[in-house]
Amino acid sequence: MGDLTERILHILSETDEIGTLQLAKLLNEDHQKIIGALNSIQANGNLVIAKPQSHKHFELSQEGVVVAEKGSHEALVYNAVQGDGIEQAELMKLPNAKIGFSKAMSAGWVVVDKSTGKQIVKRKVNKIIDQVQINLQAIANGDFSQLTDNIKQEYKKRKLLQEVTVKSFLLSKGPEFNISLQKLETDLTTEMLLLGTWKDLKFKSYNFEALGASPESGYLHPLLKVRTEFRQIFLEMGFTEMPTNNFVESSFWNFDALFQPQQHPARDAHDTFFVSDPRTTDNFPTDYLNKVKEVHSIGGYGSQGYGYDWKIEEARKNLLRTHTTAVSARMLYKVAQEKEFKPVKFFSIDRVYRNETLDATHLAEFHQVEGVIADYNLTLGDLIGVLSEFFKKLGITELEFKPAYNPYTEPSMEIFCFHKGLGKWIEIGNSGVFRPEMLLPMGLPDDVSVIAWGLSLERPTMIKYGYNNIRDLVGPKVDLQMIQNTPICRLDK
Amino acid sequence: MPTVGVKRDALFKALGKTYSDDEFQSLCFQYGLELDEITTEKQMITKEQGENAESSVGASEDIIYRIDVPANRYDLLCLEGLVRGLLIYQGKIDLPSYKMLAPQDGFEHKLIIKSNTSTIRPYAVGAVLRNIHFTQDSYNSFIDLQDKLHQNICRKRSLVAIGTHDLDVIKGPFVYDAKPPAEIKFQPLNLDKEYTATELMDLYSGHAQLKQYLPIIKDKDVYPVIYDNNGVVLSMPPIINGHHSRITLNTKNVFIECTATDLTKAKIVLDIIVCMFSEYCDQKYTVEYCEVVQADGSSNKYPELRYREEVIQTAKTNTAIGTNESGKNIASLLSKMCLQSKPSNSGKTIKVTIPPTRHDVIHACDIFEDVAIAYGYNNIVRTLPKTNTIAQQLPLNKLSDLLRGPICQAGFTEALTFSLCSRDDVSTKLGTNIESVKAVHISNPKTLEFQVCRTTLLPGLLKTLAANKKMPLPIKIFEISDVVLKDVNSEVGARNERRICAVNCNKNAGFEVVHGLLDRIMMLLEVPWNPQRGETGYYLLESNDPAYFPQRCAEIICNGKVAGKIGVLHPNVLTQFELTNPCSCMEIEIESFV
Predict the structure, then answer these.
(1) Same domain, residue pair B451 and B533
(2) Per the database record, which ranges form the B5 domain (chain B) (predicted)?
(3) Cβ separation of B409 and A217 shorter than 8 Å?
(4) A94, exposed or middle or buried, with CB in 10 Å at 0-12, 13-18, 19+?
(5) Do residues B486 and B442 touch, judged by C-beta distance below 8 A?
(6) A457, A223 Cβ separation under 8 angstroms
(7) Which of A80, B24, B327, B435 could form a disulfide with B314 if both were Cys (CB 3.0 to 4.6 A apart)?
(8) Are the beta carbons of B493 and A365 separated by less than 8 Å?
């Protein structure tokens, strides 16, 4: 390259101006290389003045190249018609036969003979001159002298020729013209400082249009960045974190304690991962277990119950918890065992499991975010109010609530928010007031109500960072580049 | 959540008003329903069977609304119920009063239960809809409702199975018995000849819809069967009805029987069907009872059609919701929700009558919810609980979060992998057998990826590396998360354990890289290096593990206990996880540092 720049400067020293295309021909180099050399010259200062130019010229298209080599479509058709002629249908099997045939007909090279009842194509003249091929060969050699504008237009229409625009530069000497390049320093070094040489050296100008070197670092996972933000929000609101580090749970705490009947579809193997080893649990608080059994089967605490035969065997089955509400139940039971009831606010963010059919938005395991408040006489208005504040911290201000059904909450509400990006209302969570049939057997006072809500961590993260497929976010198929490229998480921004 | 498909135009006609899609959606939203999809029969078939499905030819292009109904609202599972519920909600009609009548003169409906049934399907109830008039649409709806009930409250017919019959072609008293399959022989619905029960079970094993119900009775010695007085088979619950008593558009009198393993649910199902479809009887909203005689000779009349009364306190209702409404207002709100209510003179209490269509109301809190729905969730004043609490982080999570940052700063990128994996991932792929691994096993995984809970974080990280071969080397990744280990001393027989795992993948194994990270973590945890191998501090103790390269594996001993492992991974392990570059890794538990 250094060599080429000097050759260019040398040529320029002997002439007033010269185009880069001409230089390419002269030096027998690719035009792109000349441009590259020009860039290096320009990087050294105002050695040359480069005036951008562009001009159009014709060159053969891909099809044109083939015609120049093998002959025009009509000539090929003519050549295919030998001796007594050829059936038209047969002839039309040639490549490009349709256009070739019509051109050959209008040139008067061939005729169609229908006298035998078949369509036979025969030669009409003995000899042809393939002017198209001749012309294209001339163009290929850069000889345009035989071409009228009409012919150019026709060939262009036949897509044998194409017009191309070439950008180039017209070079002339600049104010700092010199026939050789001074070597420029790229960086300031310790040595230059020590010797003081930096004062006399010429430095290469810095390219501010490029990106810098990326710093060496590790990167935090986007979903867990969002988890950090959620934790922070709960802590700001005074919620205490629950110990959810127990993925294996008994059906009793996962379902029965929540007044979820044993025939409920969620307890089906289609929806829940049951554990074959260790298969069952035996350690239950007996007194409480009996109360749960009673409220399911015959009611009590003001309830009719579900009126079915409650079986301990069902409650003993181990499973992978389907929601962190199983932990909330344990925590509330613990609260109820205290001598005196003290109001509590709990939260957790952890993995839960569903035996789902996997798709772009469903995984067999995901993170559930849950908030719980237990206090005297909490109202549905309190639940709606606290949700408004919670979601405000997530940057969501427009909320609507839809009546819903959930076996362990009554009233129950689905939480909808208006998504500005999607321009519609979307469901973002579930909430409700825990049923007395769940709370009273635990021993909580009559006038204590417990409000709770839950949502998945993945969904807001997908919305926040614009993912469409959950598997791009969680699991071993995740792209590490994606992890590096995710911005910091401020949900309220 | 069940989804009910109703024809839009028929729905609007019955509601007496034409809505735009948005208006109807909004009505649904307030009432707790969801307009899930707007489609046509043709679109549904195309969606299910593909663009050129034969059955889509000639399929109707009438607009269908598919509406999500809350799982406990069986009274909204058909057009009739939806319309009735919404019209009452809008105050356009009054609550119907459902009445049970004695059979018409000269009739007696009796269903006798034989003791044999006790081993297989012990309960049965029945009722008769007299002088009913079906149209094609209402007939279809009648069939659809049974299907929706079967799929939901009846738990795919395992709890309750419904049979409906043309009363005029059969003769009571009916007998509900259980007999060996070879002795049951009849012509079933939609087939043209008689089969024994044994033959039928065979025949239906390939039937798209019916095969799912076969296991309910398949291996039993006797099968449930209902006969009329002439020995005609009405049905073989829960599989199929008989052809002889099938109902048609012209059927005038319908005998409904429900057999069950759960009597409560059978009564609910029967109540719902008769309440919904007595609308088409000459004497609207009436039903004739059927006397069911138990094996012990006692007898009951069905349907129960019980109206239950509950008294709620006005103050308590307001407290639950956060409103301040009078007893009178609350009573009128409840009437919109099909709950006839009357405030006491003082207004302090309200007597609520729960109709036989609302078996979902089992507690006062269910009534509170209906008040709140009728009031409008979005009209409730938003308040904040006065609960004053001091927040606290879970120490284990706090520690994990405090370590994630510095590990990241040390150049390791955080991965997030699944806590479930295949048996091979934690055993054979790491050079051990599954029997020696303390893994929790899942009994019903849908795929091999979810056979066990992971006992180590390593496989997930190695899979992450395998999926990221395009990244420039070195790749350094880590995860702080839980593994699950079997443990007889814990309540459920298994416990979580929080761990850190980190892997360095490069052109050379680079043991010193993960070793350096371990030193850094120990420094952060204030555990000193103790090359003298004492009871405090940490050191490495060479060990053997088939997952690691020989002589390149050590146990991490922390304060005298094994906290984890560190080393260069064995090439066999790399091959198993489809990796081509050497890796070094370390994995330690951190719960003892909390």
Answers:
(1) yes
(2) 305-382
(3) yes
(4) middle
(5) no
(6) yes
(7) B327
(8) no
Between chains, do A476 and B463 touch, taking CB under 8 Å as contact? yes
| pLDDT, mean over chain B | 93
Of chain A residues 188-227, which have a CB less than 8 A from chain B? 216-221, 223-224
B406 and B538 together in one domain: yes
- DSSP bridge partners of A165: A56
| pLDDT tens digits along B340-399 | 999 999 999 999 999 999 999 999 999 999 999 999 999 999 999 999 999 999 999 999
Nearest CA distance, A340 vs chain B (angstrom) = 16
For B319, the closest of A377, A386, A480 (CB atoms) is A377
Cis peptide before A95 (omega within 30 of 0): no
Is B585 strand, coil or helix? strand
- Which run of H or E residues covers position B406? helix B395-409
Domain that holds residue B139: 99-191+209-302
pLDDT for A56 equals 81
pLDDT greater than 60 at residue A2: no
In a domain, B163, yes or no: yes
Two structure tokens written together for B330 = 């609350």
Residue B382, Cβ neighbours under 10 Å: how many?
16
Give all strands (DSSP E) within B518-560, no chain letters.
Answer: 538-542, 548-558
- Name chain A contacts of B123, Cβ cutoff 8 Å: none
Domain A2-57+163-200 belongs to what architecture? 2-Layer Sandwich (3.30)
3-class SS at B395? helix
Q: Are residues B312 and B298 in the same domain?
A: no
CATH number, position B331: 3.30.56.10
Q: Looking at this protein, which amino acid is placed at residue B118?
A: S
Residue A129 has a pLDDT of 85
What class is the A223-485 domain? Answer: alpha beta
Yes or no, beta carbons of A384 and B365 under 8 Å apart: no
Instruction: Tell me which DSSP letter residue B292 carries.
Output: E
**Reported ipTM exceeds the 0.95 cut:** no
**B447 in any annotated domain:** yes
Phi, psi of A18 (to 5 degrees): -155, 145
pTM for the structure as a whole: 0.81
Chain B residues with CB under 8 Å of A303 CB are: 362-363
Taking CA atoms, B228 is separated from A91, B170, B223, in Å, by 81, 6, 16
For residue B30, give the nearest of B303, B378, B280 by alpha carbon: B378
Residue B533 and residue B583 in one domain: yes
Q: What angle do CA A460, A462, A466 make, to 5 degrees?
A: 125
What kind of fold does domain A62-153 have according to CATH?
A: Arc Repressor Mutant, subunit A (1.10.10)
d(CA A268, CA A263): 8
Verify that B450 and B536 share a domain, yes or no.
yes
Peptide bond into B303 cis (omega under 30): yes
Beta bridge partners of B6: B65
Residue B199 lies in a domain: no
Tokens found for residue B309: 């009364």
Taking CB atoms and an 8 Å limit, are A219 and B70 in contact across chains?
no
| pLDDT higher than threshold 80 for residue A287 | yes
